[in-house]
Amino acid sequence: MCPLQNLEMTCKHVKSLTCSALFSIISSFKWSVLECKVARVGSNSFVHRDALQEQLIDIILEVLKRNSQLHYYQGYHDVAVTLLLVVGERMAMAMLEKLSNHHLRDFMDTTMDSTKHILNYLMPILEQVDAELHDFMTRAEVGTIFALSWLITWFGHVLSEFKHTLRLYDFFLASHPLMPIYLAATIVLHREQEVKQTECDMAMVHHLLSHIPEDLPFELLIGRAQDLFDCFPPPLLAKQAALQSRSSLSISSFQAFQLSTLHQRPDSVLQPGDDGELWRQGNRIVKVAVWGLSATLGAAVFAVAQTAMDWGPEAFLQLF
After folding, report:
1. CATH architecture assigned to 113-253
2. What is the pTM of this model?
3. Digit-coded pLDDT (tens) for 138-168
């Protein structure tokens, strides 16, 4: 997420977004940091920054123009740029539009109420697994705001290694919309000893948790997050989270997604670019070549492509 200088928004959603305002946001994006991240996963070159910025603006504005019910939120471009780098402009636009109406839908409302509701799942998950940790964090009054950027950018803003961002996107694309909050809980649980050894003070605990270590075992954490989800699915926690599942637009739309996958057929439309155990038991300027990173997204990208015809055939066919 970038600082929204000269704009009347912080973490609030906005009802409309002009091209100039969006350009201001994206221009302040930390491109040099992204370049370093991408270089570490083996790319030979980085797209000319001006070209990438224009493509990113085009994608976001087009999605918002097509979907008047959606509202830009701070951090949305972190998701968009990740898709853009991996699958190219046309596919990124299709994927972003679909995700915006499904997995990211709660973040794109006119207020942050739905986002807060999703964050409310974090503490009940912790309570189910480690009551002592839950009680410690409750006494510290740390809340869940430390996990906000994790949730709304799918960790894309906070991870220093681009390969880890891609792996998590792979996981989230193939999972329930609330899976990012389960992964957030898994990370907190993984750092349980660090948290408990910290002074029981809101500022101290928030500072610790808001900085994700670079050496986290993400494959292990992904497995544990899935275990947590299986043990404590959203309907089981909805009452504790003061949220009825039906009030979440992301959850309700995901139910339609699940139904569509029952009828999906294998296809080969999307081509790669050129270039456990339960927790308790232990484009306008230049045409750019698509990054050779698409394989990293793995099965989840193919799953999105395979169901695209069911989700929105008109939008999907416009790509070809």
Report:
1. Orthogonal Bundle (1.10)
2. 0.68
3. 999 999 999 999 999 999 989 988 899 999 9
